[in-house]
Amino acid sequence: MSTKRLFLLFAQFLFLHSNDGFPNTGSGESLCGSRPADVVFVLDSSGSISNGNFNRQIRFVTDVVDQFPIGRSSNRIGMVSFSNWAQLEFHLKDYENKAQVEAAIGEMVPMNGDTNTASALAYVRDVMLTSENGARPEVPHVVVVLTDGRSNDPRKTALEAARLKQRRDVHLFAIGVGAEVDRLELTNMASTPSDQYVFTVLNYAALETIKDLLTNKTCRVTNPPKFTTTTTPDPLVQVDQACGSRRPVDVLFAASPFADHNATRASLTFFRDVASRLNIGPDAVRVGVVPRDCDAVVPAISLREAPESLLRRLKRQHPQSAAAETTAVASVLRYINDVGFVDRQRSPAGAAAAPPRANNAKRVALMIVDSAVDRTAVDEAIRAKGEGKDVEMLVVVVGKDALDERTKAVATSAEHLFHVSSYDELSSLVDKVSSSICPA
Q1: Is the pLDDT score of 240 beyond 70?
Q2: Residue 25 — very low, low, confident or very high, per pLDDT cuts 50/70/90?
Q3: Are strands 362-369 and 417-420 parallel, antiparallel or unpaired?
Q4: Which end of the chain is more exposed for a tag (fewer CB within 10 A), N or C?
Q5: Which residues fall within 8 angstroms of residue 395, CB to CB, at 6 or more apart?
Q6: Quick one: average pLDDT of 315-338?
Q7: Rounded CA gap, 332 and 391, in Å?
């Protein structure tokens, strides 16, 4: 297998959660390409959703719809709500422009009752996606289900979802909101791979963080990007080929030393999403991951590992338990300074090594910080950014408690500092962070 093919496979493997690739222009006219779609939103209207959260759900759908062109020969929108039963809000054929659709969405009222998700999925299949109600056989059919809890009959829900997905060109997205959702049920409901079709957020206010991501993923499944390469890449992966072409780039990823299992998994997913946008190659971009044990001689994933080794090791890369309190951000920065970018570092046992890097490679460290840092950490960051090391420090701050003047001092500049309220929101930063690593 050629080296070029291996690099492409590596980038594909890293891509756990497809992000945009379609620029967020704020205008659906240029966002989604030329192929239209029939899009049906299926909204939970059960009694567990307060009026305020129901309105947030409505606003989220309106914002998503606002990014698409709508018309007879363009995208068509339909809407179903459900509680004890499915209730039609409007058919795909009912409205011919965006203003009409958004007005109809705004008129929805909560039903209150149980969570009969299965009835809504059956209704979409048997009623909504029929030619007499406006569905077109020649275009993709996108179904977006929003729910805040476990359905009253998960087995029947999975069965109805399977029947719906058997129809030609149906793409089913499942969005779970809050702590009561069942991730397994969402996975069984959605299209595959679940990494592309399942979203979860902590609350209805957090829906805002996935608005653009949902829009762009919808664009991707209805308008897959065209490739000129002779390989057969994942249609949802789009790599910035310019990244690293002008000057090689070395990138080290570092999770918070205090992150628990779930936070570490979210961090790894975020790192893989960012890496998937970079042009991985021996003369372009190389990536590595700082180990949780910062006294280790070898990084968790070495910058010098060859692509085939990276593939094998990333497949078995798992979150580890949170570090002890004595392992602080300063230790991570010290590792970056003394070990991470040293070309003579050895690769892990059994891992093939790539050739040493040229001295002119740009050095970037992407750190996630979720707690306050001490003065020692700031000193190590200054050393990393100083002459002779010249590491560009990108810092992602998670939570309000960690965002202070010392944390800001770790980043190279204000443009290199990013902030989210929770680990669930990391995906919203993939574009900005990858663009900072490889600016246009």
Answers
A1: no
A2: very low
A3: unpaired
A4: C
A5: 367, 369, 407, 408, 410, 411, 416, 417, 418
A6: 61
A7: 14
Q: What is the pTM of this model?
A: 0.49
- Residue 100, pLDDT score: 95
Task: Tell me which residue has tokens 């899009």.
Answer: 39
Task: Tell which wins on pLDDT, 183 or 327.
Answer: 183
C-beta of residue 117 within 8 angstroms of C-beta of residue 145: yes
Please give the structure tokens belonging to residue 59.
């606003």
Count of alpha carbons within 13 angstroms of residue 435, beta-carbon side: 13
Q: Which residues of 364-381 are buried (b: 16+ CB within 10 A; e: fewer)?
A: bbbbbbbbebeeebbebb
pLDDT grade, residue 33 (50/70/90)?
Answer: low
Report yes or no: 291 and 339 within 8 Å, Cβ to Cβ. no
SS3 string, the chain, reads CCHHHHHHHHHHHHCCCCCCCCCCCCCHHHHCCCCCCEEEEEEECCCCCCHHHHHHHHHHHHHHHCCCCECCCCEEEEEEEECCCEEEEECCCCCCCHHHHHHHHHCCCCCCCCCCHHHHHHHHHHHHCCHHHCCCCCCCEEEEEEECCCCCCHHHHHHHHHHHHCCCCEEEEEEEECCCCCHHHHHHHCCCCHHHHEEEECCHHHHHHHHHHHHHHHHHHHCCCCCCCCCCCCCCCCCCCCCCCCCCEEEEEECCCCCCHHHHHHHHHHHHHHHHCCCECCCCEEEEECCCCCCCCCCCECCCECHHHHHHHHHCCCCCCCCCCCCCHHHHHHHHHHHHCCCCCCCCCCCCECCCCCCCCEEEEEEEECCCCCHHHHHHHHHHHCCCCCEEEEEEEECCCCCCHHHHHHCCCHHHEEEECCHHHHHHHHHHHHHHHCCC
For residue 141, pLDDT beyond 50? yes
Cα-based torsion angle of the residue sequence 391, 397, 398, 400 in order, rounded to the nearest 10 degrees: 160
